[in-house]
Amino acid sequence: MPIIDVHAHVGRWQFHLTAGDADANLRQMDRYGIDHQLVSASEAVVYDAVAGNAALYKALATRPRLHGYAVVNPNRIDESAADLRRCLDTGRFVGVKIHTHYPGRLPGSPEMAAAFDLVAEAGVPLLLHTWGSEVTLLPELVEARPGLRVIVGHAGGDAWREAARAAAACDRLYLEHCRTATDAGRIAYARETGVPVERILFGTDSTLIDPCVSLGVIRDAHFAPDELERVLWRNAAELFGLKV
Amino acid sequence: MPPREGPQAAPLPATPTGTAPSATASARPVGAYPWLEPTSEEYVGWDVDVLYGPWPRHDRDTGLAEVRAHLAASPVAGALALSTRGVLYDDAGGNAETVRDLADCPELRPVGTVDLRDALTAEARLDELGAAGVRFLRLFTVDQGAEPDFPGYRRVVRLAVERGMALLHDGDPRRFGPPLTGCGADVVFLDLHAYLLADFLLLARDEPGFRATTRMLSAPDSIERVVESVGSRHLVFGSRTPFMDLSPQTLKLRYARIPADDRAAIATRNVEELLA
Fold first, then answer.
1. How many C-alpha atoms does B123 have within 13 Å on its Cβ side?
2. Is residue A89 within 8 Å of A53, Cβ to Cβ?
3. Most exposed among A10, A130, A225, B83, judged by the fewest C-beta atoms under 10 Å?
4. Cα angle value A33/A16/B191 (rounded, 5°)
5. Residue limits of the Amidohydrolase-related domain (chain A) (predicted)?
6. What is the 3-state secondary structure (H, E, C) of chain B?
């Protein structure tokens, strides 16, 4: 069975760790048996979205196992709109990544609303960084935009209960649980709350976090074999239209 | 010695550094997910971060029997544990409960605590722990709202260090580390995040007694950087069972690119030194 990692990054981080270049992603993927990885550029996330997306495209050109997220900066919506069109036209970007911490905008802000509009119009999935009670706003924001599908990145972080309830209330929200602090019971809680296994995805936050952390979370979730297949690759393949 | 003998850790296969990564995904037999099953490289002699009992903010509570069963089904052979009663409600009662409960648990060693909000009673608490042979004092600065410059916190730390107790310390090592330097303290930082690693390494260079758990050292080379920079003696295993998933922690140990002897030191030997 293959594995698709829907939450990863290419590029350096500003901490005492080795992230490497796109080949470092591939080496990690080989190590853990991850076949495909959906990546955004760390440069685009923390610094310059347009420049980071452009640099990522060059890395994707020769690495078919990597698939790009174009980073949209809610504070540069017109610039990001034009850049998103360019990225999607390459055929190597399959979704959008929006962070909240680095641009300093949360769901509920007018800037984020405009960014959601942009992604909905583009018709590709959105990987949204979530870390806090703002996840409670997502069902309403998504329902107001037909066709918008949002991966709740980190499953809300500390607010994983709220994220689970949000995903249970909206069938276009998907949970992805990568995180350093692997609180016990997050996946069980989501399922008990009503999130179907078809909307749980596998993500790692590589190369910021070693993939074995998220693999351990999957191991401790004790999925049945058919559920494991869904979480590790089938759900992602269907969401992004990837041929595996 | 750990309470039960585990398999001998074998060295990891060499990482193919310098080899070209695969341009296309490699075919694997159906169901071939090696990480789904624990291996000998995940064996842990001592987990320093285990609790049991009620925790009101959590959805459910986990009692001692369930924690023991959870550990028994894992690669973790032994643990330093304490009742949550002493953390949240009654330090004297909680310490007594921990000592009493764990007397019949050969795989568990008791950890004591002192409520930092009432440090005037710290001396009595520490005397009680010493009389019970408790070697480890766990501090809950986050849950009890203590800061490094609070008089109560400083008194508790001074008394514990004077008694030769090893501190199991929560919170940010960048804030709590500096006041603990220069006094020969044995300290295990339980909340060292990969983002804070550079500052911890600067502290550890001058403090042989400073250690950290691997729990939140989640970056691809966090553990390796500690081993290469200051040595494996500065790391121990701590899972925060039952509040955290255990497999991510043992898998980190398994996949760390370190010699088998360093892995054994982190998983077992460093804590045995503190227990001695």
1. 2
2. no
3. A225
4. 85
5. 4-242
6. CCCCCCCCCCCCCCCCCCCCCCCCCCCCCCCCCHHHCCCHHHCECCEEEEEEECCCCCCCCECHHHHHHHHHCCCECCEEEEECHHHHCCHHHHHHHHHHHHCCCCCEEEEEECCHHHHHHHHHHHHHHHHCCCCEEEECHHHHCCCCCCHHHHHHHHHHHHCCCEEEECCCHHHHCHHHCCCCCCEEECCCEHHHHHHHHHHHHHCCCEEEECCECCCCCHHHHHHHHCCHHHEEECCCECCECCHHHHHHHHHCCCCHHHHHHHHHHHHHHHHC
Q: What is the DSSP letter of A132?
A: S
pLDDT tens across B237-263, in order?
Answer: 999 999 999 999 999 999 999 999 999
**B58, B218, B222: best mutation site toward chain A, by most A Cβ within 10 Å?**
B218
Give the residue from chain A lying closest to B17, CA to CA. A27
Residue B25 confidence (pLDDT) above 60: no
Q: Are A98 and A72 in contact (CB under 8 A)?
A: yes
Cβ contact (<8 Å) for B23 and A65?
Answer: yes
Which 8-state DSSP code applies to residue A73? -
- The contacts of residue A156 (CB under 8 Å, 6+ apart) are A130, A131, A132, A135, A162, A163, A164, A166
- Note whether B248 contacts A189, CB cutoff 8 Å: no
As a whole number of angstroms, the distance between CA B273 and CA A187 comes to 37
pTM value is 0.93
For chain A, the domains span 4-240
Q: Which residues contact A221 (CB under 8 A, 6 or more apart)?
A: A187, A188, A231
pLDDT greater than 60 at residue A239: yes
Contact between B160 and B137 under an 8 Å Cβ cutoff? The reply is yes
From B71's Cα to the closest Cα of chain A, the distance in A is 13
B276 near A CB under 8 A: no
- In sequence order, the 6+-apart residues with CB closer than 8 A to the CB of A144 are none
As given in the structure block, the two tokens for residue A198 are 């078809």
For the segment B132-141, the average pLDDT, to the nearest whole number, is 98
The domain A4-240: what is its CATH number? Answer: 3.20.20.140
Query: Which pLDDT belongs to residue A76?
Result: 97
Interface of B with A in 232-261 (CB under 8 A): 242-252, 254-255
* CA–CA min distance B72, chain A (Å): 14
Question: Could you give the CA distance from residue A19 to residue B219 in angstroms, rounded to a whole number?
Answer: 9
Q: Which residues pair with A129 in a beta bridge?
A: A153
Partner residue facing A181 (CB), from B16, B24, B244: B244
